[in-house]
Amino acid sequence: MYSNIAFAITLLGIFSIFELSKGNQKFSLIKYHFLARLILLTAGSFFDYLELAGYEIPYYREIFKVITAVLFVNMLFLIVVKKLPKLVIGVEIFFTLYFIIQFANGFHLPNIKDGVLLNKPNLSQIIFIGAYIFLAVSATIYNGLQLLTNKNFTINLYELKIKRWVLSYIIGLLVLAFINLLLFISLSKHTFVIYDDSMINSFIHRFLFILFVLFRPKFLDDDKYYISFSQTLTKKNGLAFQDFEFIFYSNHYYLQPDANIEDLALKLNVSKNELSNFLRDKIEENFNELLNKNRVEYLKELLKAKKYESFTIEALSEMAGFNNRRSMYNAFNKYIGQTPTEFIQSLK
Description:
By secondary structure, this protein is mainly α. The chain has helices spanning 2-21, 29-52, 60-80, 86-104, 123-149, 157-189, 198-214, 229-234, 241-250, 261-267, 272-283, 287-304, 313-319, 325-336, 340-347; strands at residues 26-27, 111-113, 116-118, 227-228. The chain is 69% helix and 3% strand.
């Protein structure tokens, strides 16, 4: 029976990969994560099928679990803080190397088969695995708290949807992990039995994740921050003009009242100095000049469209991203050579 389930999930995984990849091949970071998870899930199910058919493949479960954990943590940091901290990379490398060494010495992750706990780890291995799980959960909670407290992440409707969805994803995974921990403890101590095989647990997780992807929210397919797969493979160091243009102009970043160079650098995944150098060399303006010039141009277009007939100058000024009347008047006079009132008179 298990082999049939493994084969069925393999086919379902293949279908999900094609469904996720259909149509436009421009993927968001989240969809790349889905694709990688689906590939690992499908390959793991196929290897399960081969093992159940008598073809043993050593360590594939351990390898896939380590890769999946690293993949998930990295996705969270890239979505929430827009970069991978060096500390996180260092910790991941350390734990991965440790697991490789342990695997070379014959270590297998513990699992339950027919109600019997197999590959029971020794004390040092329990401590290490516990530390690994603790750090993964801590990274998940940290990013969840960042989503709750970081106001810069709720600038537009799309990011607000992403925030809510990722929070739901995090909460769901934490609840699932807690339930699995309780089940594992109860099974290992025979306090009560719902199922007596870790493979059933794996099948349930894989099936739920496939359903999660297949019935994902529609807005994930309309990602505003997509990049093509070829761009991901060929991405160069430094800030590309098209990335800056997309965030600053296409997404109207300059209209945000709290726009600042530190926040923009974070969104572009570069340092403040890199962004400053880019503006100096490629745009030939500093950040504040570029910000005010584009706000003035936007305000000028609003006035040309006679929006002043429905809104006050102060309201139009706020629409253009200015924080106060004085800064708007100073910028407008600097770049247009007139006050907004004089500009309106010139249009009549």
